[in-house]
Amino acid sequence: MSEQSASAAVNIDITRIMEMIPHRYPILLVDRILEFVPNERAVGLKNVTFNEPHFQGHFPRFPVMPGVLIVEAMAQTAAIMVVQTLGKEAEGKLVYFMTIDQARFRKPVVPGDSLHIHVQKTKQRGPVWKFKGEAMVGDTLCAEAEFSAMIMDN
User: Fold this and answer.
1) Residue 3: which pLDDT band, with cuts at 50, 70 and 90?
2) CATH classification at residue 117
3) What residue numbers bound the domain in which 109 lies?
4) Which NCBIfam families does its entry note (predicted)?
5) DSSP structural state of residue 87
6) At 9, is the pLDDT very low, low, confident or very high (cuts 50, 70, 90)?
7) Comparing 11-20, 34-43, 90-99, 121-130, which segment has the lowest mean pLDDT?
8) Which one from 23, 58, 116, 118 is the annotated catalytic residue?
9) 3-state secondary structure of 22
10) Would residue 58 show up in a list of annotated catalytic residues for this protein?
11) The total number of structural domains that make up the chain
């Protein structure tokens, strides 16, 4: 196992996630962090279930997870990566969206899917971080986007 692989395998659970970011049900969209490489990348997990409130109105006869929520899950995974990377320095701070570019939705995400959210830092300047995100179900790319966020005091 390479050094990078050893540092990538983590298990940050929902309790720790709620300590790191302020989001709560129904907008908390990351159940667990499966991989983490400080200052580089993270993989989050979202188990998509039919009892989530957006499915009542987002095509009830063919429930599809809204694309904006998939992008939000990418942003939350990135925020967790930022907070975990910065440690104590990030406590009490919020990570805000600044831009969303090149968003593409390739395949619907439906109840029963396990959505793996891959985010990679592409650039950082001061409090501004830029990322590339991909949302996968199995080996299938469902959505992708480039986005930037700023970490700020709460």
Assistant:
1) very low
2) 3.10.129.10
3) 14-152
4) fabZ (TIGR01750), PRK00006.1 (NF000582)
5) G
6) confident
7) 90-99
8) 58
9) coil
10) yes
11) 1
